[in-house]
Amino acid sequence: MADQSPRQSLVFAALTGLASIVPIWRAPRPVRFALVAGTGLVAGGAAYVALTRPDLIDADREPVAAPQSAAVGTGVAVLAGGATAVGFAVDRAFEQGLVRRGVKHPRLVLGTAGAVLSYAIDVLDRRFDSN
After folding, report:
1. Alpha carbon separation from 40 to 3, 43, 52, 62, 96 (Å, rounded)
2. In Å, what is the CA distance from 66 to each residue of 5, 35, 37, 58, 59?
3. How far apart are CA 63 and CA 76, in angstroms?
4. pLDDT of amino acid 126
5. Distance of CA 12 to the CA centre of its chain
6. N or C: which end of the chain has fewer CB within 10 A?
7. How many angstroms separate the Cα of 31 from the Cα of each of 26, 54, 64, 85, 113?
8. Rounded to an integer, what distance in angstroms lies between the CA atom of residue 37 and that of residue 45?
9. Rounded to two decimals, what is the model's pTM?
10. Which residues fall within 8 angstroms of residue 54, CB to CB, at 6 or more apart?
C-alpha cells in the first residue's frame, strides 16, 4: 500500500463508510446465506487454485497435491464463511448497542466510524511501509 496516495485512501475510506451504512444483518436470510457461502467458496477456491497451480500466481514452488489442497481450501472456506457470519452478528450488536444508547442515526455513526478507521489504517500502513 506504500504506493497508494492519500487521495486514494480518502476515496477508499469514503467507500468503506458508505458500505458500512448498509444494515447487512437485516437482509433476508437467503441473501445472508448466499453472502456467507459465496465468501467461503471464493476464498476456498482461491486457496485451492493457488496451491495446485502456483504458476497462476507466479509462485516459485511445486504444486501441492489435490487432496491436501482440497483440505486447505475447505478450511479456508469454512474460516472465511464463518468470519462473514460473525461479521453480520457484530454489525447487529453494534447497531443495537447504539440504539440502546439513544443514538438517532446508528448506521450513520457506524459508517463514519468505518470511514475514519479505514483512513487511519491506510495512513498507518503507508507510514510503516515507508520505513
Report:
1. 30, 5, 18, 25, 27
2. 40, 26, 22, 19, 17
3. 18
4. 82
5. 13
6. C
7. 10, 33, 34, 12, 25
8. 12
9. 0.80
10. 60, 61, 62, 63
